[in-house]
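Researcher: Next sequence.
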Amino acid sequence: MEINTNSLQFLFGSTIRALFKQSGKEFENQGLNLSPEQHYLLRILTSQEESIQSDLAEIMQKDKSAIMRHVDQLEKSGYVVRVNDAVDRRKKHIVITEAGTELLQKCETVIANLMVKNLQGISDDELTTFKKVLSKMKENAEK
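Model: Next structure:
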């Protein structure tokens, strides 16, 4: 079976993989010990007051065990801590540490620079249209 490299599915998938590979390589080049998935996880943790593993799994659209592996690595590196819930002792909130926040800021600078590079030759109007189309496609897929 021949792969249609012009199909939307192929283009989306290969673009996402290329962007993740690019950011992972640049994190490594900058001496930042973080994978693109872990970067995304830290970014989520800074945008939410309280995060538990199941919430993170839902947001990242990954299974809980994959999230647990990332959290374990981040905790081992000192970038997150698990905090007991005040009401339900079985619940552990994942909280970003100061070291995690500092690392995230460095990663955000790397990502911003990569976005400037990756958006070269794309007008603001094209980008706005692209975002609208992606939003509509996502909305249709979730129906």
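Model: The longest helix spans residues 8-29. The chain has a mean pLDDT of 91.
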